[in-house]
Amino acid sequence: MSAVKEIDDVLKSLESAIPSIIGTLVASGDGFVVTDTLSGSEAEEVAAMVATTASVSERMSATLSAGGVNETSIKGEERSIFLYRASEQGILAVIAEGESNVGMIHLRAREAAKAIGEQLSAPAVT
Q1: Domain extent listing, the chain
Q2: What angle do CA 45, 86, 96 make, to 5 degrees?
């Protein structure tokens, strides 16, 4: 099974476990879509913003001597966006409804990010 198929399965499982999640995306560190479950054609734009946000978070963390960044959260009035470092090659973005169980999202998404990171870091089979 391909890495993208494996990652898609992880995303579907995450969304099934937490119904308030309305979409997920895995972006490369340079802002390209690896795979996503977003409806519409916004994935490419979101992937670019995910990479930029992760980069700004890293810079802020370095400036404040906070260490490496594993997660970034954005709380909007209608939705929340959570970013999780999956590996050096990828970032998991989780978009959820405003009144979501944030603790459960963090718990499940951290597990998903670890599984995605393993897929992204695995050597390609030819």
Answers
A1: 3-121
A2: 55
pLDDT digits (tens, 9 = 90+) for 26-52: 999 999 999 999 987 799 999 999 999
Maximum Cα interatomic distance, the chain, rounded to a whole number of Å? 46
Regarding pTM above 0.90, the answer is yes
The answer to whether 53 and 45 are in contact (CB under 8 A) is no
Please name which of 36, 52, 42 lies closest in space to residue 92, comparing C-alpha atoms: 36
Question: Which phi and psi angles does 88 have, rounded to 5°?
Answer: -65, -20
Phi, psi of 33, deg, nearest 5 = -75, 125
In angstroms, rounded to a whole number, what is the distance separating the alpha carbons of residues 126 and 118? 18
For residue 98, what are the CA distances in angstroms to 59, 77, 101, 116, 122? Answer: 27, 7, 9, 25, 35
3-121 has which CATH code?
3.30.450.30
> Which portions of the chain are predicted below pLDDT 50?
126
* Whole-number Å distance between alpha carbons of 95 and 100: 10
